[in-house]
Amino acid sequence: MIEYKEWRHVFKLDPDKEINDDDLERICESGTDAVIVGGTQGVSFDNTIDLLARIRRFPLPCILEISTVEAVVPGFDFYFVPLVLNAGGSENAFHHHIDGLKKYGSLVKWSEVAIEGYVILNPDSEAAKVTGARIPKDIDEVKALVRLADQMLNLPIVYLEYSGVYGDPEWVQAAKSVIEQAHLFYGGGIRTVEQAAEMAGWADTVIVGNVIYENIEFALKTVEGVKGIRA
Q1: If you average pLDDT over residues 6-11, what whole number do you get?
Q2: pLDDT score at 206
Q3: Which of 58, 82, 207, 210 has CA 20 to 30 A from 188's CA?
Q4: What is the CATH number of the domain that holds 121?
Q5: What digits encode the pLDDT tens for the residues 111-156?
Q6: Is 229 inside any structural domain?
Q7: Is residue 228 a part of any domain in this protein?
């Protein structure tokens, strides 16, 4: 069983983006708690299994965040399934999950799966466009979405997703303040030690992705910001 509730820092790698072997090694040996493999577009079975094989050289948990049924690859340590709580319509919220369960429901090992209650907060992100996300207007709406995930649906994870831009710490703090049992993930725009440390003050786990492909040195320093580990 993957103890994701003990994670403080996680790197997220996109199968549709290039990373050389040296940088991948530095990411996997940085002191991060785990690596999540996932992306919004261009994710396929082939590029996902290729990235998994490269990560498997290193002794850290490797998790697949499922964005499309066609890219589900066996052999990961654990699987996260996003459920976008502010998706624009039931087709974007549930229909893909139903299609996946029709095909593979009898094969799912549920002890290796956790559902993420996603709240998309960047209207310009690809995730927002794909799901038709209805971006919250204020803190009260964020709190309502978090309560939906945490108290009504009893989901194990709430994921605040800013997708490439740095989020509002007050909104993250507000989300944390109403959670009773779920684990809070934050992802989006972390590019400095200071930003990583600030979000780590409220989120249970800070997820760092885009900066890996923009500036590997900055990416590695986020581990220090969250955990005090100098990579």
Answers
A1: 96
A2: 97
A3: 58
A4: 3.20.20.390
A5: 999 999 999 999 999 889 988 999 999 999 999 999 999 999 999 9
A6: no
A7: no
